[in-house]
Specification:
The chain is α/β, with parallel strands linked by helices. The chain has helices spanning 28-49, 137-147, 159-168, 191-205, 228-234, 255-271; strands at residues 2-7, 54-59, 78-80, 99-105, 125-130, 133-134, 152-158, 173-182, 185-188, 219-225, 241-244, 247-252. The structure holds zinc ion (ZN).
Length: 273
């Protein structure tokens, strides 16, 4: 058994605002510890089902070097750190994995009562539609897993992202560790209890049969930026089509190549901001 874990930070137990998720903020050291502990709980859940399971963890937040390697208790786990990297928040996944698990995830930009809601790059992206459906990071990254035939079986985060995950596929097991009452405030379950819920939820999820999310072909990414200047810059990509003032379109038969076009578009937008 091989399990892939992608770990974002906004949906980690006990975290409610930028003070714990930005390396420039004073409580960041506490945030990265909380992040590692939610991952350790997921690993415990996996190992309770199969003590020999092979586990790869991908740090999927910000500079993607948040989890301190020694904070992962399971010595046989592989930790993918740093960025940029191919497949970004899903780096390390391939067709040898049996299931994907998302920890610390958050809802797409603009979601009411979505904990620190945004879509991949808060300052750049107004919305992302894939094949006509507006998605957040959960569906976008489930599509990468699905490209390799790997099902997303579990999502932990705030209540809003668990609802978003159920819209992707109702069979996905979810655990809500907090209820956001604004974008940057939440009713939080005690981390110890949240970790127990994650452990049990993951153990249940990896025993389920869930269908991988297969998108296209063709795969169409409609990327709407927060400003026309960003779309101007992103339209320098040879395959990009300009849809309107703030939107460009990337089309490819291969999901990961389309996704890499999305990453390149953000890099262009950021370079000129
Ligand atoms: Zn994040």
């Amino acid at each position: 058994m091989k399990i892939f874990i992608s770990v974002d930070m906004e949906g980690i137990s006990g975290i409610v605002d930028g003070s714990m998720v930005s390396s420039k903020q004073g409580d960041y050291a506490k945030g990265r510890k909380l992040m590692a502990e939610d991952v350790n709980a997921a690993i415990e859940g996996i190992l309770s089902v199969n003590p020999k399971a092979e586990i790869t963890i991908c740090d999927a937040h910000g500079a993607m070097n948040n989890i301190l390697p020694e904070d992962i208790k399971h010595k046989d786990a592989i930790l993918v750190r740093g960025r940029p990297k191919p497949q970004s928040q899903m780096a390390g996944i391939d067709s040898s994995f049996d299931a994907a698990v998302f920890i610390g995830y958050h809802a797409k930009k603009g979601t009411q009562n979505g904990m620190m809601s945004h879509t991949y790059s808060g300052g750049n992206i107004e919305s992302l539609h894939i094949n006509g459906v507006e998605v957040g990071e959960t569906a976008m990254n489930a599509g990468i897993a699905g490209y390799y035939g790997v099902p997303l079986v579990f999502v932990a985060g705030d209540i809003a992202v668990t609802k978003e995950a159920k819209e992707v596929n109702h069979d996905i097991e979810t655990v809500a560790v907090k209820e956001a009452i604004s974008r940057v405030a939440a009713k939080c379950i005690h981390p110890a209890k949240a970790r127990e819920m994650i452990k049990q939820g993951v153990a249940k999820a990896i025993k389920k049969k869930v269908k991988p999310l297969i998108v296209g072909p063709p795969v169409i990414f409609d990327i709407r930026f927060t400003d026309a200047k960003k779309a101007d810059a992103a339209s320098f990509i040879p395959s990009a089509e300009r849809v309107d003032g703030k939107t460009i379109r990337i089309t490819h038969d291969d999901y990961v190549k389309a996704y890499h076009g999305f990453l390149a578009a953000i890099a262009c937008a950021t370079a000129f901001s």
